[in-house]
Amino acid sequence: MSLQQGYWYTYLSVHIINKMQQKGNYFRALKILHTAMLAGQVLFLLIVLYLVFSHFVKPMDSNADKVMQVATIVIGFACVFGGIQYFRKRLEKIKEGTLLLAEKAEQYRAANITQWALTEGACLFTIISFQLTSNYSFAVLAGMFIIYFAMLSPSKLKMMIHLSLNEAEVAGLEKD
Questions:
Q1: Model pTM above 0.85
Q2: What confidence tens digit (pLDDT) does each residue in 32-52 have?
Q3: In sequence order, which ranges of 62-100 are alpha helices (DSSP H)?
């Protein structure tokens, strides 16, 4: 994906979320974004699985395979761990601050999206490693990252727990 395509993807994603939030669909917008990111990872993995299984791509030599194994494990788990730590620190700042509910929701959304982006980056790097090496252990690791990403799906209950909100406050987000 070129830089210009990435810009438009980001712009459209933010624009769609902002439009949906203006109509009071906070959770729906967040859920759609998460589902789209998840679907992109799954689709990319399926395409690469087909290409590797059909021998459309030629694997790298075995020395490069070992380097990719180390790089993928280090980068993948650094991204996932970094995302977890970032999300926790953002939650602490949100809880400590005296922010309005809408501001808390905005910062919570930003923390979620950042964590998802880091996790998706780990998954995409692993899928690319699989494509370059044709080593199916990368496909398994990518599948594990996808499962973890799916578990990060947003919900009202998670937001209530993470931000210590009550049902009335969460319901207020839907009406704004």
A1: no
A2: 999 999 999 999 999 999 999
A3: 62-96
